[in-house]
Amino acid sequence: MHRFIANVAFGGSIAAAYGAFKFLGAKTAEERAHYDWMGYVGNFIAISALLPLPFAGYWLGKEIYAYDQSLGITLMGGTFSWLFIIQAVLIGNLFLGANYYLWLSMERIAGAERFRKFIKYLLASIAACFLVWATPHSLVATVEEARKMGGSHHPMLGVLGVMSAKNTAVNILILTTYISFLLYRRSNKEATVPWARKGNIIQFSIFAVVVIFVIFLGVYGYFVEAKVRIGLSVPQVLSVLFAMIAVTAIDIKMFKNAKIKGAIEWGKMPARSQYALFFLAITFTWLMGLMGYVRSGLRQYWHVYGIMKDTSVDAFTPTLGFAANVVSVTVLIFFSFIAIVFWLSGLSGKKDWTPKLAQEGQS
Q1: Fewer Cβ within 10 Å of end Cβ, the chain: N or C?
Q2: With 70 as the cut, is the pLDDT of residue 178 above it?
């Protein structure tokens, strides 16, 4: 399930990158409008899959621990633990890039300027969660540095390196991204239902209660044993899912037959928004390659862990540095091929769409 959802996000990001490539090379307003719309749809698919992806990761981790606890220890606290710091940085960049694109997308919508004042608060939330998520539990330090710290754990930042803090950070990060999309969705709409004010209050209350609940469970996790702490991620996930589903249901009802304040001007996007789509596609690909190495290397010298050994001479796990280099080169080769495919798509001289069909698809 985790890999399936990741593949959906990956596919959406590649489609968005193609739209960005064509947008930057477009010569007419109609072409820019079409490929702007294409990039948005691809990115929407990618973000829609990105939001539940950490939940699927929790589920996968839970299954790994349930199968063999030593596998989980190797995964999160052993050989592969530092790759999860890289993973945290990459996923944090994915969320930052996705939000950045959504904020830039508001420029194409009349009426969205009223929500721009909230962007700085959303950015602060994302940055804080990003920093917590990327903080390692133990630091690579010299003997002298370790002595000054009193061990491998930083006396102040060490508390942010455990899963209680990271689970809390990623759940709030997901909620923040969802709020960005909610603001984008509302950009050119004004609710006309008589209970609109109450609806907004209810939505805000749901967010507030869920955030407080998630933070409470995160803090509570420091005072219980590891077995209980791992289980606390489940109510955190369920509460965030509840918030997104409940708020979406209210929003759909509240903005049905809403007053439209302005049309969406497809194509009215700065060039940097398209580079954000390239960034997301590359980051998704690199992340999937690195995590694929983790999934495969976790078995170590087993075909089936603990049941069937791999007795061949090649049954070894490559070092993290070697694997990272191989994955990075593979990503470069992959995008070289993608660039060739994008280039070839423009050689025929034929449009892969017509203005009439594009307008029908965007309506």
Answers
A1: C
A2: yes
DSSP per position, 242-294:
HHHHHHHHHHHHHTTTPEE-S-B-TT---HHHHHHHHHHHHHHHHHHHHHHHH
Is the Cα torsion angle 338, 340, 346, 347 positive or negative in sign?
negative
The Cα 105–Cα 252 span in angstroms is 20
Task: Report how far residue 134's alpha carbon sits from residue 346's, in angstroms, rounded to the nearest whole number.
Answer: 41
pLDDT at 56 over 60: yes
For the ranges 166-175, 224-233, 277-286, the lowest mean pLDDT is seen at: 224-233
Q: What is the largest CA-CA distance in the chain?
A: 73
The vertex-33 CA angle with 29 and 39, nearest 5°, equals 140
Q: What is the mean pLDDT of residues 211-224?
A: 88
* Assigned token pair, 49: 């899959």
Instruction: Name the nearest CA neighbour of 129 among 82, 84, 168, 177.
Output: 168
Q: What is the dihedral of CA 322, 325, 328, 334, to 10 degrees?
A: -80
DSSP assignment of 108-160, as one string? GBTTGGGGGGGHHHHHHHHHHHHHHHT--SS----HHHHHHHTSSS-TTGGGG
- Label residue 357 by pLDDT band (50, 70, 90): very low
DSSP letter (8 states) at residue 192: -
Token pair of 97 as six digits: 């890039």
Dihedral angle sign, alpha carbons of residues 349, 354, 355, 359: negative
Q: CA-to-CA distance for 358 and 38, rounded, in angstroms?
A: 10
- CB of 221 closer than 8 Å to CB of 203: no
Helix (H) or strand (E) holding 222, with range, is: none
Q: What is d(CA 17, CA 11) in angstroms, rounded to the nearest whole number?
A: 10
DSSP calls for 311-338: -STT--PPPHHHHHHHHHHHHHHHHHHH
CA atoms of 179 and 186, how far apart (whole Å): 11
